């Protein structure tokens, strides 16, 4: 994005800078493939639990294993990408994310499954900060909308992951999950060829360059508050993803395949919410949209948990998915606006460390399920939006970032908000 803003600035153009839709399309599809691997794991948990005779806590521990490598490495890799561009992390990350889940389905013991899932988490960590940074460059001046297209790929990945995993394992058994590696391998090959053509912060055209300065310091206080809110949202999202298939099986007395379908309904509705969130945020403000979506989610989750009818619960998943995912891309944009000099770090913390900490809470929720049942876990999850709302309400109004660009046409300022 800085590339495009620089070019427009040097030409003295006050007009909105368009998105690089080709780059965003490739990054969005890569995000789909990467998160498809993550989305497959919750649907695989009932098969892991049955095949290895695991408790709920041990099953939820597999979710922790999948996120622990990601939570530690994403902020570090985000800082690395801020200092030195590393586009190769995007294709390598996609490949490793699929490889980890695929290997886990073949492992004979619990701890080997854990190791494989940690490897997949490393792939997730490698992909997200650098991919989000390039999506920021490609989004033009409509960053919330552009980032929503990138995030849409992730939402769709979580939607199709359970369907693909369930179909493979119902057909081939648990080892059928090994086939999940194929989309990641194919996407990695495409990205290795296409990444050099994506927008770069230092390239304004063939043989041209420009120097970039952000005329605002990083706002670490608001960023910290936002990070806590994202952690709360992560616990909420991971809790729903982990226990939704089990909730459908144990509480609503439905087949495992129906539980996987519930995950798909939630994530597919979330795809619409992701696009809606970006569109609304560019028009009505980031903070306002997140607060409104969180308030509505509080009410909807309460109604969902109170519903004991599978059909009604399934219908409620549609609005729940929409408002759950509405803030998704908006939160990443807000983080990058609070840290305009550290785009990779902002994405690494919000998409990596903060989001992955939700996986740390999964075993705790699993312990609640072991003691009191899955329905009790869902009741705990319903209060989390109140926690998120409280921290979001403490944030300042939306930030406006001024960029100072210099090139062959001389220096001039441009504002991006």
Helix and strand run: HHHHHHHEEEHHHHHHHHEE
Question: What is the helix tally?
Answer: 15
CATH architectural arrangement? Up-down Bundle
| Count of the domains | 1
- Rg for CA atoms: 21 Å
Q: What fraction of the residues are assigned to beta strands by DSSP?
A: under 5%
Helix/strand-derived class? mainly alpha
Number of strands: 5
Helix content: over 70%
Under CATH, the topology is which? Growth Hormone, Chain: A
Uncertain runs with pLDDT below 50, 5 residues or more?
A: 1-14, 202-215, 401-417
Give the end-to-end Cα distance, rounded to a whole number of Å. 12 Å
Q: What is the topology, as strand order, of the major beta sheet? A: 3-4-5
């Amino acid at each position: 994005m800085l590339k495009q803003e620089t070019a427009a600035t040097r030409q003295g153009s006050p007009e909105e800078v368009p998105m690089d839709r080709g780059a965003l399309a490739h990054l969005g599809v890569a995000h789909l493939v990467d998160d498809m691997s993550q989305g497959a794991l919750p649907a695989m948990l009932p098969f892991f639990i049955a095949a290895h005779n695991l408790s709920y806590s041990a099953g939820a521990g597999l979710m922790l294993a999948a996120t622990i490598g990601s939570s530690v490495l994403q902020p570090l890799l985000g800082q690395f990408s801020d200092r030195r561009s590393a586009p190769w992390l995007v294709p390598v990350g996609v490949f490793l994310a699929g490889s980890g889940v695929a290997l886990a389905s073949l492992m004979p013991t619990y701890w080997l499954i854990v190791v494989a899932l940690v490897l997949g988490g490393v792939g997730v960590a490698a992909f997200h900060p650098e991919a989000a940074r390039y999506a920021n460059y490609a989004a033009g001046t409509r960053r919330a909308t552009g980032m929503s297209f990138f995030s849409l790929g992730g939402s769709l990945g979580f939607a199709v992951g359970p369907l693909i995993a369930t179909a493979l394992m119902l057909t081939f058994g648990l080892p059928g999950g090994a086939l999940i590696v194929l989309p990641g391998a194919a996407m990695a090959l495409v990205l290795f060829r296409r990444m050099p053509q994506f927008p770069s912060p230092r390239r304004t055209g063939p043989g041209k360059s420009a120097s970039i300065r952000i005329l605002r310091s990083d706002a670490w206080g608001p960023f910290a508050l936002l990070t806590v809110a994202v952690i709360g949202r992560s616990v909420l999202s991971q809790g729903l993803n982990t226990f939704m298939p089990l909730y459908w099986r144990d509480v609503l007395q439905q087949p495992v395949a129906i539980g996987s379908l519930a995950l798909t309904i939630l994530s597919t509705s979330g795809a619409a919410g992701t696009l809606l969130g970006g569109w609304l945020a560019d028009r009505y403000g980031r903070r306002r949209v997140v607060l409104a979506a969180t308030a509505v989610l509080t009410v909807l989750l309460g109604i969902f948990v109170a519903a004991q009818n599978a059909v009604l619960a399934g219908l409620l998943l549609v609005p729940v998915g929409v408002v759950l995912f509405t803030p998704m891309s908006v939160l990443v944009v807000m983080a990058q606006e609070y840290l305009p000099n550290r785009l990779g770090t902002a994405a690494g913390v919000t998409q990596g460390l903060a989001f992955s900490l939700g996986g740390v809470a999964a075993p705790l929720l699993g312990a609640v399920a072991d003691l009191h049942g899955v329905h009790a876990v869902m009741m705990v999850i319903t209060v989390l939006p109140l926690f998120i709302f409280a921290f979001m309400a403490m944030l300042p109004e939306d930030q406006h970032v001024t960029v100072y660009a210099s090139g062959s046409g001389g220096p001039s300022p441009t504002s991006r908000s």
